[in-house]
Amino acid sequence: MRSYLLLTGIVATLALLIAPAAGQTPPEPPNPTPAPAPHPVPPPATPAPQPAVPAPPAPPTAADNLPRVILEIGRGDEVWGNIVLELNRTAAPHSVENFLRYVDSGFYNGTIFHRVLPDFVIQGGGYTSLNEPKKEGLLAPVRNEATNHLKNLRGTIALARASAPHSATSQFFINVENNPRLDYPGHDGWGYCVFGRVIEGLEVVDRIRNVETRVAPELQAKTDAERQAGRAVPDPEKSQPIDPPHIRRAYRALAGAVAAPPVAPPTTAPGNGPAATPPHGPATRTPAGYPELPKPPVEEDKPTAPEE
What 3-state class would DSSP assign to 5? Predict the structure, then answer.
């Protein structure tokens, strides 16, 4: 009996050890070691921003290479109309820039045409009256660009200068005839630089060329004194307007605002024009204060150069 009880206790004990306790869940097996995660593939690198390439400059337009200037002309209270100039920046860049600087600054406003030769030129841009040169606002002289192959034909505009080839400043002239003697190389190896042409208002140019002129009184007096002293001197130049026309205002024209009709045909055949002295720059002044005009040439085909 005792052996039976002992055996029964051993069996019960083993059952308790083997069977899980009532209400208990069997322990979960240990988690296996997780496999290492694969290395992530890096995203593609963003390219570094490149500096912006500037756009190529726009090609120059006709308005850049052929700027236009309007001269409003009058006399006293009269309005005579406009002279429209087309300037050739490609052929004469320094001369055009020089002229535009005077235009933009207002330098030409109120200046007169102080020298008028009806078979040669009309000249202006340097005087506010016959006895008053305009000095305030004058710029340094500009290099002579007369080697640009532009010709001094009727209706062209060129820079006036003194005898030194690179002495042009503000004064200009408009050819009212063909004047080949003023072309490079001229009488002095340089000639006079054409930098544009009249494209509208040639009738205003002709109205200026036809104003009444006289010999400057001081110049006539000097000539008379020379002759009384027994010296042979040529007749003085009759080019001073009695009532000079003036530039009321000068300004740039808007691009495309003016058509460009052809320049009127010349009234004198090239090479057959009258003998005349070349247009001059700032003139010499006599003791009385009048700008002394240069003497006419002795030989028709070799005009003498004016002197400051």
Answer: helix
Q: Residue 75 forms beta bridges with which residues?
A: 78
d(CA 295, CA 280): 11
Q: In this model, does residue 304 exceed pLDDT 50? A: no
In a domain, 38, yes or no: no
- Give, in order, the Cα–Cα distances in Å from 170 to each of 19, 54, 106, 139, 239: 124, 39, 12, 8, 19
| 114 in a structural domain | yes
Confidence of residue 72 (pLDDT cuts 50, 70, 90): very high
d(CA 263, CA 161): 25
Specify the number of domains making up the chain.
Answer: 1
Distance CA 283, CA 271 (A): 27
We report the CATH number of the domain holding residue 79 as: 2.40.100.10
- Quote helix, strand, coil % in the chain, to nearest 5: 20, 25, 55
pLDDT digits (tens, 9 = 90+) for 202-223: 999 999 999 999 999 999 999 9
Quick check: 168 and 97 in contact, CB under 8 A? no
Give which of 170, 168, 103, 107 is closest to 141, Cα–Cα.
168
Domain holding 259, by residue range, is 62-292
Whose CA is closest to 246, among 142, 86, 155, 116?
116
What's the token pair of residue 174? 């408009």
In a domain, residue 128? The reply is yes
Residues 133-188: pLDDT tens digits?
999 999 999 999 999 999 999 999 999 999 999 999 999 999 999 999 999 999 89
31 within domain boundaries: no
Whole-number mean pLDDT of the chain?
A: 78
